[in-house]
Amino acid sequence: MPATRTPAQQEMLNSTFSRFWGEVDHLWTVAGQDQTNEARALIRTRLESERSTMTTVIARLLVQNSEAEGAAVQQITAIYGRVEKNLYMLLAAVVAAISITSALVIRHDRRVFAQLTRLSEERKELAGQVISVQEDVFRNLARELHDEFGQVLTAVGVMLQRVEKKLPEASRQREDIHEVREIANQTLERVRSMSQMLHPPVLDDYGLENSIEWYLRQFEKQTGFQVHYEKIGIGPWIGDTVAIHVYRILQESLNNIVRHSGTTEAWVKVAYSPATLCLDVEDHGAGLEGKPARKGLGLIGMRERAELLGGQIEFQRPAEGGTRVKLVVPLPAGGVHE
């Protein structure tokens, strides 16, 4: 163990080896001169003494080496113990840090999710209020158009008819009055049509099923489209809240077909069951690009109406091309939904 050996010990070891090997060399010299007895005497005396001295020195150094090795083992064991302790402490600190961080993240996520849920509920409630106000405005506007403007235009038409009868048959003034009266009648028809589109009275009087059939006839007449209508099942009486939302979704879907499809045909299917109402509106035209559910105020309004009803709406692409709007609305027991 050279690191623990002193210079004196090293000097003693070197001198012992030098004397021993010097005696060995002298022994071989004497033996080479055929002085056998002197060589044997030299072995028994001086060489044996030097060997004994060398053995004693080496034994002391070996004992010292053993002690140094034992001390080194103890130091290494202590170092390993401290390293192991530090590793356990580091592992415990890491686990604690991960646990604390995870707890903080989970707490933060819960708060964020709770806030998002609250905002979603508020948005849903606000959307419902906006749509309710919109429907009230449409209803009031339809009533004003029908009652106020309709009566005014009707009165104007009656007065023009009276004036027309008082004028001579072939007079130019009578022709002008007749032309003005025709314009008033056409305007009256347009006002009535606008009033019905804003809020059809048939929806309040005859329910959703008859309103859909009436609207599809009006749609074909006004746009020149051919609508293939299919009804499955018997439609229960559905309250005003569900009826107006389903009607508006159908209306917006067909208007989108007119604006974007580039075709003149549409397919409408309504399936009634005791638990659900399914509405499919389909065309085989250009279709909507990208993710249509996220684009356009009309499509957003359709999605919000479906959410207010607790239903689902999907915007799909049929195999034939184009767009399919699929609405599924749950119905309560008995089929009445106010």
TrEMBL record:
<dbReference type="InterPro" id="IPR011712">
    <property type="entry name" value="Sig_transdc_His_kin_sub3_dim/P"/>
</dbReference>
<dbReference type="InterPro" id="IPR036890">
    <property type="entry name" value="HATPase_C_sf"/>
</dbReference>
<keyword id="KW-0902">Two-component regulatory system</keyword>
<keyword id="KW-0418">Kinase</keyword>
<keyword id="KW-0597">Phosphoprotein</keyword>
<dbReference type="GO" id="GO:0005524">
    <property type="term" value="F:ATP binding"/>
</dbReference>
<dbReference type="GO" id="GO:0000155">
    <property type="term" value="F:phosphorelay sensor kinase activity"/>
</dbReference>
<keyword id="KW-0547">Nucleotide-binding</keyword>
<dbReference type="Pfam" id="PF02518">
    <property type="entry name" value="HATPase_c"/>
</dbReference>
<dbReference type="GO" id="GO:0046983">
    <property type="term" value="F:protein dimerization activity"/>
</dbReference>
<keyword id="KW-0812">Transmembrane</keyword>
<dbReference type="GO" id="GO:0016020">
    <property type="term" value="C:membrane"/>
</dbReference>
<protein>
    <recommendedName>
        <fullName>histidine kinase</fullName>
        <ecNumber>2.7.13.3</ecNumber>
    </recommendedName>
</protein>
<keyword id="KW-1133">Transmembrane helix</keyword>
<keyword id="KW-0472">Membrane</keyword>
<feature type="transmembrane region" description="Helical">
    <location>
        <begin position="87"/>
        <end position="106"/>
    </location>
</feature>
<dbReference type="InterPro" id="IPR005467">
    <property type="entry name" value="His_kinase_dom"/>
</dbReference>
<dbReference type="InterPro" id="IPR003594">
    <property type="entry name" value="HATPase_dom"/>
</dbReference>
<feature type="domain" description="Histidine kinase">
    <location>
        <begin position="140"/>
        <end position="333"/>
    </location>
</feature>
<keyword id="KW-0067">ATP-binding</keyword>
<dbReference type="Pfam" id="PF07730">
    <property type="entry name" value="HisKA_3"/>
</dbReference>
<dbReference type="InterPro" id="IPR050482">
    <property type="entry name" value="Sensor_HK_TwoCompSys"/>
</dbReference>
<keyword id="KW-0808">Transferase</keyword>
